């Protein structure tokens, strides 16, 4: 558990800040948004499974090495392999050395969180607001809004994902599993 | 059908439930089992947990109460509180001042061993944070303070004569208006190397009250009550800062000192086993994170014995 804690801190501090850059890198050889999310998740899982072993080197270099391997594996497994695609993956990803990382100040972070909240669909936004700003739990939120607890939980879960995505530099769109019905609140 | 989306949904459900009042030890154990069962679960959960926590700042929108984060130094808290009281007392002070003061919660920046981070602060100043370091920044247009808690950072401070840039390293305070320099902290020793312009180094307490102006090409070393300023050539100072490009530069440096330097950047530690080898002097530029290449050179150039294990490289004559 001690080790896990180290691993989690490393992942959160040294890997997650590159999420946007990682997604752009993946998007070079893959267009489908759901597939990009799959590949990103796959990369993260491999990094975590790899654990302590490769951590002496730069986290960013390690991240993009793993990403490249995942993309190559995917290209190999695909029935039709485009040579162009493999060539593209093989070509090294030039780090943008001028891209200084912006330290989010408390105020930037608040502004970003407010923007993220703002663009949620109305019902989802209200549920997230009651949780994060007012600190209400699901039961209290359900009572306040006069809706079922199940609805609140579902909206909060969707809102949590969209907010987390937005705070990590993403677009913060609501992404539903295809099995869920779309009648629950509007699309972002 | 995306597997990542499904997994994310499951992870989000865990996070939502964990924040609810009924969360029990049994739930906690079940979550731990779920996390332990697959690295993919950890990836999805840790990612969402982090992003969701970052939105916690929204809590400050509730009423007017802002409890200070635990790492804010007490004095800062009181001065913040005093600023708030002033606002309450004097209606003429604008709301913007209030939000500016209150928003100055320090931002924490840390690096792991072997890592470096480039950061631009709100006032346009640039930092390069060296290996295994931790600092906090509270910088906006009104005031500029950085606490160096551990390690080393290089600063290119944006010029602003009206708002001095203050770095606090232990009980030392370094004040600048706009220049390039680095601050390194090893326990209670603080070393300031100035590349351009001038900075003022002073102690914060009665014990360390001496102040000195350090100019380009100078290195100031402060420890306890003493403050030593050494005049070096600007070239020597530039070399001491070559870590910014991932290189370590040595000039007639003892092997013992070089090993200490390498060990700041690598988990695999270099140990010099005997006195004779430790006293050897070396020069040149080396890649900070490639300690193995350095050890190979030692074997080649000095005929030293090199034994490598997973966490150490042992060198002896």
TrEMBL record, chain A:
A GO BP entry: DNA-templated transcription initiation
InterPro entries: RNA_pol_sigma-70-like, RNA_pol_sigma-70_dom, RNA_pol_sigma70_r2, RNA_pol_sigma70_r4_t2, RNA_pol_sigma_r2, RNA_pol_sigma_r3/r4-like, WH-like_DNA-bd_sf
Family from the record: Belongs to the sigma-70 factor family. ECF subfamily.
Keyword DNA-binding: yes
Protein name: RNA polymerase sigma-70 factor, ECF subfamily
Organism of origin: Sphingomonas gellani
Domain RNA polymerase sigma factor 70 region 4 type positions: 113-163
Top-rank taxon, per record: Bacteria
GO terms assigned for molecular function: DNA binding; sigma factor activity
UniProt entry keywords in alphabetical sequence: DNA-binding, Sigma factor, Transcription, Transcription regulation
Entry-linked Pfam families: Sigma70_r2 (PF04542), Sigma70_r4_2 (PF08281)
Record-annotated RNA polymerase sigma-70 region domain positions: 18-79
UniProtKB/TrEMBL annotation, chain B:
Domain FecR protein: 108-200
Residues annotated as transmembrane: 77-98
Span of domain FecR N-terminal: 9-49
InterPro entries (UniProt xref): FecR (IPR006860), FecR_N (IPR032623), Ferrdict_sens_TM (IPR012373)
GO molecular function: sigma factor antagonist activity
Keywords: Membrane, Transmembrane, Transmembrane helix
Name listed for the protein in its UniProt record: FecR family protein
Lineage: Bacteria, Pseudomonadati, Pseudomonadota, Alphaproteobacteria, Sphingomonadales
């Amino acid at each position: 558990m001690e080790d896990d804690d180290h691993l989690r801190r490393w992942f959160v501090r040294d890997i997650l800040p590159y999420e946007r850059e990682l997604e752009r890198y993946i998007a070079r050889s893959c267009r489908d948004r759901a597939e990009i999310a799959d590949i990103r998740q796959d990369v993260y899982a491999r990094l975590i499974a790899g654990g302590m072993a490769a951590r002496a080197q730069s986290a960013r270099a390690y991240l993009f090495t793993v990403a490249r391997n995942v993309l190559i594996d995917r290209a190999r497994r695909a029935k039709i392999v485009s040579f162009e695609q493999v060539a593209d993956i093989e070509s090294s990803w030039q780090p943008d050395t001028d891209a200084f990382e912006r330290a989010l100040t408390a105020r930037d972070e608040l502004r970003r969180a407010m923007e993220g909240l703002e663009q949620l669909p109305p019902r989802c936004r209200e549920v997230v607001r009651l949780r994060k700003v007012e600190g209400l739990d699901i039961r209290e939120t359900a009572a306040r809004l006069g809706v079922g607890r199940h609805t609140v939980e579902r909206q909060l879960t969707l809102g949590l994902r969209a907010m987390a995505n937005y705070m990590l530099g993403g677009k913060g769109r609501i992404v539903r599993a295809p099995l869920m019905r779309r009648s629950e609140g509007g699309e972002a | 059908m995306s597997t990542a989306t499904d997994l994310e949904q499951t992870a989000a459900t865990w996070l939502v439930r964990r924040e609810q009042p009924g969360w029990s030890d049994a739930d906690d154990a079940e979550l731990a089992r779920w996390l332990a069962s697959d690295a993919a679960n950890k990836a999805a959960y840790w990612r969402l947990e982090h992003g969701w926590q970052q939105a916690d700042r929204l809590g400050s929108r509730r009423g007017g109460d802002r409890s200070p984060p635990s790492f804010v130094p007490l004095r800062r808290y009181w001065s913040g509180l005093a600023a708030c009281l002033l606002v309450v007392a004097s209606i003429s002070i604008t709301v913007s001042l209030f939000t500016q003061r209150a928003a100055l919660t320090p931002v924490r920046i840390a690096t792991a061993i072997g890592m470096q981070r480039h950061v631009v602060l709100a006032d346009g100043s640039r930092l390069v944070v060296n290996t295994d370091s931790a600092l906090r920044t509270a910088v906006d247009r009104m005031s500029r303070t950085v606490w160096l808690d551990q390690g080393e950072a290089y600063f290119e401070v944006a010029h602003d004569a009206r708002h001095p840039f203050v770095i606090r390293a232990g009980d030392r305070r370094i004040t600048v208006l706009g220049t390039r320099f680095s601050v390194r902290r090893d326990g209670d020793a603080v070393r300031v190397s100035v590349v351009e312009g001038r900075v003022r180094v002073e102690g914060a307490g009665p014990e360390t009250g001496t102040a000195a102006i350090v100019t380009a090409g100078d290195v100031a070393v402060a420890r306890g009550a003493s403050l030593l300023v050494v005049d070096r050539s600007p070239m020597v100072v530039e070399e001491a800062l070559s870590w910014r490009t991932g290189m370590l530069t040595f000039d007639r440096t003892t092997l013992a000192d070089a090993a200490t330097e390498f060990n700041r950047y690598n988990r695999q530690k270099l140990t010099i086993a005997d006195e004779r080898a430790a006293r050897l002097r070396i020069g040149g530029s080396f890649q900070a994170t490639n300690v193995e290449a350095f050890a190979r050179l030692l074997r080649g150039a000095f005929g030293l014995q090199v034994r490598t294990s997973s966490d150490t490289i042992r060198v002896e004559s």
